[in-house]
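Subject: Nucleoside-diphosphate sugar epimerase structure
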Amino acid sequence: KYSATRFGNVLGSAGSVIPLFKKQIASGGPITITDKRIIRYFMTIPEASQLVLQSGAMAKNGELFVLDMGEPVKILDLAENMIKLSGVDGIEIVETGLRPGEKLYEELLMDSADLRKTSNEKIFIEQDEAFSFDEISDKLKQLREACDISDETVRQALHQVVSTYKTPDEVNKKVLPSHTGEAPYGY
């Protein structure tokens, strides 16, 4: 019996931006963000733990559970609010540029028509057709062979094997130009 649970960032966990921003503010700044348009979903550690445990209890065989993360947060707004709340003046916010493979926003599949409701309004199951062992073996073989050719071949193979896969460039193209101050999909 196995399943997977997909969700966004967990506040206060290892690698979370909040401890980093606190440290940067305490040292007088600047706060570093990769791009002013970056948007992320957040939940607390207790929230994430509860939802993962509940998903596990619902698991039958191979489901992908998708958690409703609520509204996304602009990282720039988070940084500005943390500066205001700290009471420290003169903290700059500096853009460092997107890292290779980084996406401007996360896609959590919440808009997918392929989601089935569960007894918990925050937990959905992606309805994907199950693959046989032979189909999975074939897909893994295809991916392994692509690894020996080129990065572009790997990307093409991923598109064929994982129908929802999008490269960071594909995701980032959907984001409006930064001078508009707007985010994708009306967020």
